């Protein structure tokens, strides 16, 4: 049987490799209970080596240039992401053009939009485009930008920015890596920040999707200030003080509530 120090090294190795790991996955890898994994995580958190998130563990927030892969992020905070996606989907009407940026929460939104007729989707996200290709309607149009792929499967770079010039979307749904009053929206990739800025410039309304774990995180590059955000959709795990602060800086704040009684929050 491994000693606690050995288990903690394995946890650090997995988090460094993937950026984020679920407690259940660590338990299966190490062959120990979730309670044991949580005790190990607590010690690592106290040493400042990792950050705890609901259902798992991530690299410390100070790692401003690290960008976890899409698969690493997609399994965390599922209940919050689904609640945010459901609330955001209510904003979309048939016959409109909708921009969707890269990210796991925006990917969850895409699945909520699959049955809305006669919408045009403009996206730089490969998973978002795939969702509509596989399960969307025949009367939906999906425009995918070109560009260089990031670890989160977003397309970025000069080709992406050029593709967005001259496009006018009714609404943009924008994901973010970090969120703060002074910093606004931030992400760890300079080219992704430029792509997101191009998406914002091409949109009449900007809707940001950000779960509670994004609050207080500052990544390398600024995307947009909070004053450019028309609607911010977050979840009810964001503390009240943060909600009040954000409400003073964005056009409208929507707090989505997880349906925990139905077991939709399956983060582990």
Write a short abstract of this structure.
The chain is of the alpha/beta class and 268 residues long.
Describe this structure in words.
The longest helix is centred in the N-terminal third of the chain and has 15 residues, at 4-18. Mean pLDDT is 88; it is low at 261-268. The protein is 37% helix and 22% strand. It has 268 residues and is α/β, with parallel strands linked by helices. It has helices at residues 4-18, 23-30, 34-46, 70-74, 78-89, 104-112, 126-135, 158-164, 190-201, 240-247, and strands at 20-22, 51-53, 56-58, 97-100, 120-123, 141-144, 148-149, 155-156, 169-175, 178-180, 184-187, 203-209, 221-222, 231-235, 252-256. A seven-stranded parallel sheet has the order 6-5-4-9-12-14-15, sandwiched between helices.
Helix/strand class: alpha/beta
**Shape, please?**
globular
CA-atom Rg in angstroms: 19 Å
Q: Based on DSSP secondary structure assignment, what is the total number of beta strands?
A: 15
> How are the strands of the biggest sheet laid out side by side?
6-5-4-9-12-14-15
The level of helicity is: 25-40%
- Indicate the low-confidence ranges by residue numbers: 261-268
Largest sheet, in brief, is: 7 strands, parallel
N-to-C span: 24 Å
Mean pLDDT: 88
Number of helices: 10
- H/E series: HEHHEEHHEHEHEEEHEEEHEEEHE
Q: How much beta, percentage-wise?
A: 15-25%
Task: Summarize the helices and strands and which ones pair or pack.
Layout: H1 4-18, E1 20-22, H2 23-30, H3 34-46, E2 51-53, E3 56-58, H4 70-74, H5 78-89, E4 97-100, H6 104-112, E5 120-123, H7 126-135, E6 141-144, E7 148-149, E8 155-156, H8 158-164, E9 169-175, E10 178-180, E11 184-187, H9 190-201, E12 203-209, E13 221-222, E14 231-235, H10 240-247, E15 252-256
Parallel strand pairs: 4-5, 4-9, 5-6, 9-12, 12-14, 14-15
Antiparallel strand pairs: 1-3, 2-3, 7-8, 10-11, 11-13
Helix pairs in contact: 1-3, 2-3, 5-6, 6-7, 8-9
């Amino acid at each position: 049987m491994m000693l606690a120090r050995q288990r903690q090294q394995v946890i650090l190795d997995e988090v460094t490799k993937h950026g984020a790991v679920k407690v259940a996955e660590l338990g299966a890898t190490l062959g120990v209970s979730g309670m044991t994994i949580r005790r190990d995580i607590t010690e690592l958190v106290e040493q400042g080596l990792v950050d705890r998130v609901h259902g798992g563990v991530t690299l410390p927030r100070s790692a401003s240039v690290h960008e976890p892969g899409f698969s690493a992020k997609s399994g965390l905070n599922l209940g919050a992401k689904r609640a945010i996606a459901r609330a955001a989907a209510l904003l979309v009407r048939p016959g409109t053009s909708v921009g969707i940026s890269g990210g796991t929460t925006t990917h969850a939104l895409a699945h909520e939009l699959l049955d809305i007729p006669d919408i045009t989707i403009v996206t730089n996200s490969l998973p978002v485009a795939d969702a509509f290709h596989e399960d969307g309607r025949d009367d939906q149009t999906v425009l995918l930008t070109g560009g260089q792929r990031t670890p989160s499967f977003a397309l970025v770079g000069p080709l992406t920015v050029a593709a967005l010039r001259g496009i006018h979307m009714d609404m943009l749904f924008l994901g973010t890596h970090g969120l703060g009053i002074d910093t606004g929206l931030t992400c760890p990739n300079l080219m992704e920040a430029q792509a997101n800025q191009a998406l914002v410039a091409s949109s009449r309304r900007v809707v940001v999707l950000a779960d509670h774990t994004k609050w207080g995180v500052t990544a390398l590059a600024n995307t947009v200030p909070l004053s450019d955000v028309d609607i911010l959709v977050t979840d009810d795990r964001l503390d009240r003080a943060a909600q009040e602060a954000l409400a003073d800086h964005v056009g409208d704040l929507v707090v989505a509530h997880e349906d925990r009684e139905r077991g939709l929050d399956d983060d582990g």
